[in-house]
Amino acid sequence: MKVLLVDDHAIVRDGLRRLLATLGGEEVVDAADGREALALARSLRPDLAIVDLNLPGLGGLELIRRLAQDAPETRILVLSMHAEPLYVTRAMDAGAHGYLSKNVAPEELLAAVRKVAAGGRYVEGEVAQALAVRAAEADEPMGKLSPRDLEMLRLLAQGRSLAEIADSLGIGYKTVANSFTSIKAKLGVARTADLVRLALEMGVG
User: Fold this and answer.
1) CA 42 distance to own-chain centroid
2) Nearest by Cα to 49 from 40, 57, 58
3) For 2, which of 20, 30, 87, 141 is 20 to 30 Å away at the CA?
4) Per residue in 60-101, pLDDT tens?
5) Do the beta carbons of residue 17 and residue 30 sit within 8 Å?
6) Maximum C-alpha span of the chain
C-alpha cells in the first residue's frame, strides 16, 4: 500500500512513518505542504493520504477537496490537532473518509488506517460523540459555511490579505472578494473585522 503523509512538522511525519512501518509492506512518501502533497498525489496515486488540516499555503481542507477531485482513488484520513465538530464535518464534506485528533492512541490510528484503506470510514470515538452533540444543536452559524469558505476564513484569521488568499487557493482576487461578501451574509456580519473576530472566537485559524 502506498501512503502519503502530509504534515508541516518533520517530527510528526517521522513518527507516523515509524508507526506505519509496524504494519509491514507500506511504501511511504511525505510532504510538508498542500501543494507538494497535491503534486505527489497526482504523480504517485497513493492508496491512502494522511492529512493535517493546518498546512502552510494550501490548507488541509482545500487539499482534501482537490485530492477528492484529482485523485479520487486515494482514501483520505485526517489527523489534526482540531477535534471540534465543525472541522470534522467540513473535512468529511470535502471528501475525507476518516478523522482523528492528534491525541489518539497509536493503536487507534493504525486501526483507522486499516479501516479507511480497506474502503471504510472511521471517526475517533470522542470526536464522533461531539459530532452527535453538535447535530442535536439547532442553528450553528459556522455550519452554514462550505469547506472552501472555512479555509478562506482560516487564512483571513491568520492575517492574510485577500490577494494572498487568492494566491494560496489558486483562484482570482474577485472570486475571493465575492466569497467573503457571501460569508459575511451567511454569518450575519457587516465588516471584515467582525468576520475575523468571529473566526477567532470559533477557533478557526
Assistant:
1) 18
2) 40
3) 87
4) 999 999 999 999 999 999 999 887 777 888 898 899 999 999
5) yes
6) 54
Q: Tell me the pLDDT tens digit for each residue of 1-39.
A: 999 999 999 999 999 999 999 988 789 999 999 999 999
- The neighbour count for residue 201, using CB atoms within 10 Å, is 9
- Provide the domain limits for residue 171: 141-201
> Do 16 and 107 share a domain, yes or no?
yes
Number of domains in the chain: 2
Q: Which amino acid is at 119?
A: G
Residue with cell 472578494: 177
CB of 117 closer than 8 Å to CB of 75: yes
Instruction: Give the C-alpha distances (Å, rounded to integers) separating 34 from 29, 92, 191, 194.
Output: 14, 17, 30, 28
Q: Which three cell numbers stand for residue 144?
A: 452554514
pLDDT category, 138, cuts 50, 70, 90? very low
Rounded Cα–Cα distance for residues 49 and 175 (Å): 29
Cell of 62: 482545500
